[in-house]
């Protein structure tokens, strides 16, 4: 399996537990060691300056030197002894932080150093010039050395930031991340089967298989005795003559009750036909009897 990026030729193969660490050039470890050594040196120089005359530039450089020593130790330990502590985003952030602070600290201290040397060089009165000696000479020399080492540290951290940025870009482009692959499933070694094992398995399979029985042992099957299919036998018998199957009574459609409308009272023939003799017909009743007057 090819695990090399064809565009950048960056190998994605890593030792177990170090999949999150980018690949750096061979001299990168020397660069980190130089940064830590110069950090210790500037720490001593700036501490002496602050103890003699507390310049602001020297105090800031003292802080940056301590931060450089701590980060350099973390870089070396996490890269070679404890890979689980390594995080390339933290390395990038610390390099950017130290680049800016080394620039600020060495620039301020260089300005104070120039002011001190200007005082010592122009300190002349009545033709007699003062030459720094003793503590003044040591102080001015330490300030100049600390300013120079601060400038070198600034250049070294710019270089380490550039190298780490390129390695980080290639690392991310290869599909790798900032955490080790601790949850990856372990590789399973393929099983190796010897020819002796294959022969034993074949013998066991042959012994477990049932013995084959020849066809003659079963004999000749008996001929079929079932009668052939006759469709006339399955046909239903016809009913006898004169038999009619009952017919289901169909319900009559519903019709509402018919009421005959009585003829009008002006037709005397209707009442003569249905009324008994001697009865009074409605048309013969006087109006006064039919409708009594209201008093």
From TrEMBL:
The chain crosses the membrane at residues 33-53, 59-77, 89-110, 137-163. The keyword Membrane applies. Residues 219-295 are annotated as: Disordered. Residues 239-260 have a biased composition (Low complexity). Keywords: Membrane, Transmembrane, Transmembrane helix. It comes from the Eukaryota. This is MARVEL domain-containing protein.
